[in-house]
Amino acid sequence: MPLTSTETHSPSDNTLSAWYAIYTRHQHEKTVARILASKGFETLLPLYQSAHSWQDRTKMLCLPLFPCYVFIRGGLERRLDILTTPGIYALVSNAGRPTAIPSAEIEAVQRSVDRGAQIKPHPFVSAGKRVRILGGSLDGVQGILVRQGRDQKLVVSVELLQRSVAIRVEGYDIELA
Questions:
Q1: How many CB atoms lie within 10 A of CB 157?
Q2: What is the distance between the terminal CA atoms of the chain, rounded to a whole angstrom?
Q3: CB-hemisphere CA count at 13 Å for 95?
Q4: Buried/exposed 52-73: b ≥16 CB within 10 Å, e otherwise
Q5: Measured distance CA(153)–CA(173) in Å, rounded
Q6: Of 20, 41, 86, 143, which has the fewest beta carbons less than 10 angstroms from its beta carbon?
Q7: What's the chain's Rg over C-alpha atoms?
């Protein structure tokens, strides 16, 4: 299974539209993304791999980077089609209007997942030094540099959701953004 689930079935006029977040029921993210894609929406469900152990075995699972959220690009003119999808609670909104997520935040998450970086959920971070990765497969990705013990990690945040992901940046050149 790929580490990102992006389905593109939307009309060409939506290619420049903004991304929006959909709040879903717990553990319904993959189902919601699949159903919306079959309805013709462009969706994004960034995933990461995690080892889970039970008494008799250990298994690698693909889990959502942002639990209970699926991203959708444009298509808000079909809001009823979106909101009647099983497993969806609501579009993330402010004052009753769906709030667009800055494309730079979505692109940073998407590039990090697509390039195979070691990525996992991280508590939301809003303070710290903002840096940009130079060179390599993550060239241009921006985030906040944090240290956990000896590890240096770049935290990429989606401000609207107050959620973050951490990317290991050992071996990458970085500069202040």
A1: 19
A2: 34
A3: 1
A4: eeeeeeeeeeeebbbebbbbbb
A5: 12
A6: 86
A7: 17
The pLDDT tens digits of the residues spanning 63-99 come to 999 999 999 999 999 999 999 999 999 999 999 899 9
Calpha distance 19→44 (Å, rounded): 9
**Nearest Cα to 78, choosing from 102, 109, 42?**
42
CB neighbours of residue 84 within 10 Å: 9
Q: Which two tokens stand for residue 58?
A: 């250990």
The amino acid sitting at 79 is R
What distance in Å separates the CA atoms of residue 12 and residue 104, rounded to the nearest whole number? Answer: 21
The label of the residue with tokens 């995690």 reads 50
What tokens appear for 130 in the block? 């903002």
Sign of the torsion formed by the C-alpha atoms of 124, 130, 133 and 137: positive
Q: How far apart are CA 29 and CA 38, in angstroms?
A: 14
76 in Cβ contact with 98 (< 8 Å): yes
Percent of the chain with pLDDT over 90: 42
Measured in whole angstroms, the distance separating CA 169 from the mean position of its chain's CA atoms is 18
Instruction: For residue 102, give the amino acid letter.
Output: P
On whether the CB atoms of residues 76 and 36 are closer than 8 A, the answer is no
Q: Residue 174 corresponds to which tokens in the numbers above?
A: 């970085």
What is the tens place of the pLDDT at every residue in 123-160? 776 657 788 888 888 888 888 888 766 777 888 888 88
